[in-house]
Fold these 2 entries.
Entry 1:
Amino acid sequence: MVEALAFVLMGLVALAGAVTVVVSRNPIHSAMGLLGTLVAVAVLYVVQLAHLVAAVQVIVYAGAVLTLFLFVIMLIGVDTSETRDEKLPYQRWVVGGLAVVIVVFAAGLTLFGDFEWVPAASTTSPEATNGTVQAIAVPLFTDWVLAFEATALLLTIAAAGAIALAHYRRREA
Amino acid sequence: MVDAGWYMALAGALFLIGALGLLLRRNALVMFMCIELMLNAVNLTLISAGRALNDLNGQVAVFFILVVAAAEVVVGLAIIVSIFRLRTTASVDELSELRG
């Protein structure tokens, strides 16, 4: 019951935030809409017992990534004069048609098809997926330790690349 | 317990909104935010599927996606800033040098 209430409320917040990202002309409003979606999705993670992932979502996404977005918006200025005219005139029709096809297909599959999005496990135990720090750490540092080290390397490369891009000067300048 | 199918529907709607935004907007920053929306929708499906299947690896996958997305944002925003330095615009319509 609590989960249903949280799902409906946070689902609406997430959808409203997503729509704000797409339709608002001011990039700062888009960033705020993204913040709403991120926090709402984090709440949905908590409801589904993914505690560590929810905390990381709020700290990394809502904290670091969104701050970075706002810094870049501040750097390059709030450009509200985005033109709405389309250089590829057929694209809007293709996009609209694709969206309608996808929605109708998914709804038809769910309502009329003999189809489960996620087959239910034979035994459901909340303890098995209680995503505490200890529970996540066990697979992370046993099965996925190679991937963990690879992402560490990736982060180092990304930081070095960002610094290199920031210090880039053209030769003739 | 809310059925996992409902979470899938919500994630699908978020992904669709993000994809439409990516195709319809012209501001590189907003397009980037739409990519983040789509990544979040996928993360939500992974968490829900992991819970329905009694598998903790879904949450581990989301953990990795978060890290990679953070790295992607760092590099992507640096690229947008350096494009802006050269062209003083963040509109992707202006970046048409590769047109054949």
Entry 2:
Amino acid sequence: MGRIVVDVMLKPEILDPQGQAVAGALPRLGFEGITDVRQGKRFVLTVDGVVTDQHLARAREAAETLLSNPVIEDVVAVTAEGDA
Amino acid sequence: MRIGVVTFPGSLDDRDAARAVRAVGAEAVALWHADRTLRDVDAVILPGGFSYGDYLRCGAIARFAPVMEELVPAAQGGLPVLGICNGFQILCESHLLPGALIRNDHRKFVCIDQKLRVENTSTAWTSDLELGSHIRIPLKNGEGGFVADVPTLERLEGDGRIVFRYAGKNPNGSYRAIAGITNEHGNVVGLMPHPEHAIEEGFGPSTDGLAFFTSVLSRVAA
């Protein structure tokens, strides 16, 4: 059973209200010195057998089609788990 | 005159949309997300709500529903389509309209009677409104912030495709106070506020919403 990890982040120019909420909460808990937070999404896709190049290619396609919206988000990484 | 209203799992305002259709004397045709047919309707409304629980992104999963495989080419071919709230989000995810809707900048759900300035009355859904006038209809969303890159915003401004702008305080951080836009042919309109909740005296802030539905009747009859 192989796993493919897809990381998606909001584009830098898009406002991230959730990240801002987290950034606002951190100092209240004593986590000082963090100047900004951006929140993204991680998808873990499980496939039968080991992860092949074909699996990765299809995962990249899925990442661009459904898992992210290219208008507001970037797919920052599509990797077989264990590679990174 | 037959106007289809699509129900997705999690749609909320499909019944009010159908009621608004009947209020102007048209037949409301229920369309189901899993059906690969538009039942020969003359126009389609994508209603508000939380299709697929807003999972992944608002409208992201609804975009790939079987009924959308029929709707997207039909809309590109000129079929009048109105997307309200979640319907607007679905139209953006489908790339029938540019841009995207993100979480309100203040991070709170809003539910208010919202004043809008009417900026385009040449679309299939706004011809019975008066250019430059103001209407007041409900706005209720958590993710209604309209965003797009600067070239897209400039193109929308330049082509007159901004149909409604929020008047007064910007309720959700939408870029350039954009509340609703249209495609280049004017047959597809999406907006966050809800015209279908403002069609009857005593319910909602006005009856300004009726004009959306009478407009499309004139368009289809023409």
